[in-house]
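Following up on my earlier message about dinuclear copper ion. Here are the inputs again, as you asked, copied directly from the submission form:
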Amino acid sequence: MRLATILSSAAHWSRAVLAVGAVSLLSACDYNFWRMDGHQSTIKVEGPVAKSQLDVFYVTCWVTLVIFILVGAVLAYASIKFKARTPEEEKAIPPEQGHGNPLIEIGLIGASVLALVVIAIPTLKGIWYTYDVPEDRKADTYEVTATGYQWWFKFDYPSEQIAGAGALTTANELVIPAGRPVRVNLRTIDVIHSFWIPKLAGKVDMIPNRANHLWFQADQPGYYWGQCAEFCGDSHAVMRFRVIALGPKDFNDWLTQQTSPARDVAPPRVATKDAPKVQFASLRTFKQNETGHTAKYDTSPLDAWKAQQFPEKGENAALIAQGKALFKEKACLSCHEVRGHGYAGISGPTLTHFGSRSTLAGALLENNTEQLHRWIHNPESVKPGNKMAKGYIDNNIKLTNEDEVALVAYLQSLK
Ligand code: CUA
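Thanks, got it. Here's what our run produced:
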C-alpha cells in the first residue's frame, strides 16, 4: 500500500516535471526570454541611471532571498522535528505555551532593522543619483523638453534655435547624443503621463502645472523603446516613443537635417493631365490587429533607423505634389506643421521631417507605406480615441483611396 502511494506520487511528479520541461523548452525558442533582453528589459540596461535602479533592485532581491531561506529553513526544521509520529502523540495535549524569549525577540527586531538599513542605504543613494545630473557631468549635459499629449510625445530642443521658428521640435522619436548626460524637462499638455525608457531610465510623471525632470545617459549609440507608464486614457497602452542615441558626427548631421526646412520635391516640369500612377495597391485591406512592425527593427534597429534618413528611390514627384496640395485642401495643416511648406498647425505632431522617422502614430506603427496608409485611412481603428480621428469627423474630412495614396507619398518625402 505504502509502495503504491509512493509510486503514484512519483508518477504525478514525473508528469509535473515533464510539463515544466516542455514549457521551458518552448520558451527556450525565445532566446531573448532567457537573456531577459526584450526591447523593454530593465535587466539588460544600457546607461548609468538604469544601472543604478537595477542595483537597488538586486540588493532588495538578495536581502529578501536570504530572509526567505532562513525563515523557510526554520519552518521546515520545526515541521519535521516536532511532527506527531504516533497515534498517542497526535492526541497529546500541547505543552504549556511560553511568553517568548527576550533574546530571540530582540535578535529578530535587530535583524529586521539591519535588513531595512541594508536596503535603505543604496536606495537613498540611488534616489540622490537619479534625481539630477552629477555636478562633475553638468557641463557636458544636453537638455531637451518632453511634453506628453494624448497619446504621443513632443520633444523640444531649446539649444537648437531656428531663425523665425523657435526651438527645434520633433515628435515621438527623441534623438540624443550617446555618452553624454541628457536632462529631460517633463511637461504635459493635458493629463498625467509618465516618461519611461526601460533600458535607460524612468519612470517620472509628467504632471499638469508641475515642472518635473529626469536625466539619463545612453552609453553607446543605439535604438531604445520608450513607453508612457501612467494610465492616461483610451490609448495609454499604445502611447510609445523611441530614443535614438547617436555618435557626435551622426548627431550633428541629424541636427543639421532637422533644423533645415522640410524637403521639397519639385513637381514634374510637364504637368500630366492624367491622374498620377498609384505607387502601390494596398487598397484598404489592412488587418486590424497586426502589430505593424517588420523584423528590421528587431534585428538591427539603429541601422534600420539610419536607412530611414534618406529619400526613397523611385519617388513619384507628381503624386507628392498632389499630396502636398491635399494636405492644405483637407485641412491637415490646421493641426500639423510642415516647416518650409507654409503649414503651421501646432495641436498635432510636427511633420516637417516625418519621413525620416522610423515610427508613426505615437511610435505605435512602423513608418512604412502600408502602415501609414492604414493610419491615414482609419486612425480610430489603430489608436482609439485619438484627436485625428475626431478631426476627420469634426471637419467632415473624406479621403478617397487616391487621396490617401497621394498623402502617403507626400509624407514619406518629408525627410
Ligand atoms: Cu500617456 Cu499613458
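One observation from looking it over: The chain has four domains: 1-30, 36-131, 138-258, 272-412. Hope that helps, and feel free to reply on this thread.
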